[in-house]
UniProtKB/TrEMBL annotation:
SUPFAM superfamilies to which the protein is assigned, alphabetical: PRTase-like
Source organism of the structure: Bifidobacterium avesanii
Binding-site list for xanthine: L20, N27, K157
Keyword Phosphoprotein found: no
Pathway: Purine metabolism; XMP biosynthesis via salvage pathway; XMP from xanthine: step 1/1
InterPro entries in the record: PRTase-like, PRTase_dom, Pur/Pyrimidine_PRTase, Xanthine_PRibTrfase
Name of the featured protein: Xanthine phosphoribosyltransferase
Positions in coiled-coil regions: none
Recorded family membership: Belongs to the purine/pyrimidine phosphoribosyltransferase family. Xpt subfamily.
Summary of the function given for this chain in its UniProt record: Converts the preformed base xanthine, a product of nucleic acid breakdown, to xanthosine 5'-monophosphate (XMP), so it can be reused for RNA or DNA synthesis.
Length: 193
């Protein structure tokens, strides 16, 4: 998606350790018009697929998932929580994932009320690097008996193996911007065409 690539090139910052900082428009401050265009792009890619729900993980995936839901007939957005809380009551699906940006493992939890057997689910997230967060969402869907119709990613780090692993497993992964290389010294970002 050219619009997203242009925003990353203009407003993104490359940090040491393969970190791409896009908080000016994607995961701290939200560009809602851009999110809407991203949702439209995913709706076009996944046209013809049945999508009953969109599943994401807190916190950065929520905004883009909500905007995407509008393009799928205003389906519900369910987000996996990263911590147990008193608000989570009843039976739950849970697993653990390793966060690349936080450099630690954390639980991901979804109430069984909101993810059901037979649900046709589109998974959405802001970043795909090693694929650990997405594997966690896939595990929650497996536990629930939900059908994964596809995976929508805003920014994929193509030089890491998460996207390849998911595609090799047979998932339809639509990444709107795939970064092939980043240089923290020059700030240059190369996109896959």
């Amino acid at each position: 998606m050219q619009e997203l690539e242009e925003r990353i090139a203009r407003d993104g910052t490359v940090k040491p350790g393969n970190v791409l900082k896009v908080d000016a428009f994607l995961n701290h401050q939200c560009d809602v018009a851009l999110f809407d265009h991203m949702g439209a792009a995913w709706a076009e890619h996944f046209a013809g697929k049945r999508v009953d729900k969109i599943l994401t993980i807190e916190a950065s995936g929520i905004g883009i998932a909500c905007m995407a839901a509008r393009h799928f007939g205003n389906v519900p957005v369910v987000f996996a929580k990263k911590a147990q809380s008193i608000n989570l009551d009843g039976d739950q699906y849970a697993t653990t994932v390793y966060s690349f940006t936080k450099q630690k493992e954390f639980p991901v939890i979804v109430s069984k009320k909101y993810l059901n057997a037979g649900d046709h689910v589109l998974l959405i997230d802001d970043f795909l690097a090693n694929g650990k967060a997405m594997q966690g969402l896939i595990e929650l869907c497996r536990k629930a008996g939900a059908v994964i119709e596809g995976i929508g990613i805003a920014v994929e780090k193509g030089f890491q193996d998460g996207g390849k692993l998911l595609r090799d497993e047979g998932y339809d992964v639509d990444s709107l911007a795939i970064v092939d290389a980043m240089d923290p010294e020059t700030g240059s970002i190369t996109f896959r065409r």
